[in-house]
Write a structure and sequence with these properties.
Helix content is about 30%, strand content about 30%. The strands form 2 sheets. A 5-stranded antiparallel sheet has the order 7-6-5-8-9, with helices on both faces. The chain has a 4-stranded antiparallel sheet with strand order 1-4-2-3. It is globular.
């Protein structure tokens, strides 16, 4: 039986349990963020908040102001989630990969900015063996093996990722973080 991740709630349960590969350092509440050792820039996301309200590259000390601004727009603090801002200057490639019956598919960009904004500037598509070769040449071997393992577990899913020139995320020695694994 093929496994599927059918909604965002199911995805977050697996993601927060650490079952979907390397990810950005993340905190489920502002209090968790404050209790952590992280003092770098922050990305503020949320459960079911509009993509245009996601905040990127917020200096740690400015997070309370951004929370207040989001609350003023009707977005409750309780649904906000926080993660380390990614080193966009070191970004190599990011996108959405799939390994389907007819082979590899990839929608990607090389623009060095958060993916949602990058796709507005550049959206490239590749298929077949070229995708495998691109991913193998940009991801470190462990990250590529992680991607293949995700496709083994969730063979009909889309895997959203970002690959960097440097090690990044919560698993040491990986240059790729996985943002989402989905069938929705």
């Amino acid at each position: 039986m093929k496994k599927r991740i059918s909604n965002k709630k199911e995805f977050y349960e697996l993601y927060n349990a650490g079952l979907l590969g390397n990810r950005a350092l993340a905190w489920n509440t502002h209090d968790e963020l404050l209790a952590s050792d992280w003092r770098g820039d922050i990305c503020i996301r949320g459960v079911n908040i509009p993509r245009n309200q996601v905040r990127y590259n917020i200096p740690f000390e400015k997070v309370p102001e951004e929370i207040k601004d989001l609350e003023s727009k009707g977005i409750p603090k309780e649904i906000l989630r926080f993660n380390q801002s990614m080193p966009d200057q070191d970004l190599v490639m990011q996108g959405e990969a799939a390994y389907l019956l007819h082979g590899w598919e990839l929608t990607y960009t090389t623009v060095k900015t958060p993916m949602n904004k990058a796709f507005e500037k550049e959206r490239l598509v590749a298929r077949g063996l070229a995708v495998k070769l691109m991913l193998e040449s940009t991801m470190d071997p462990s990250s590529f093996e992680d991607l293949k393992a995700l496709f083994d577990l969730y063979p009909e899913s889309i895997v959203e990722f970002s690959t960097y020139r440097i090690a990044i995320g919560n698993i040491p020695g990986r240059n790729t973080v996985f943002w989402e694994v989905r069938n929705y």
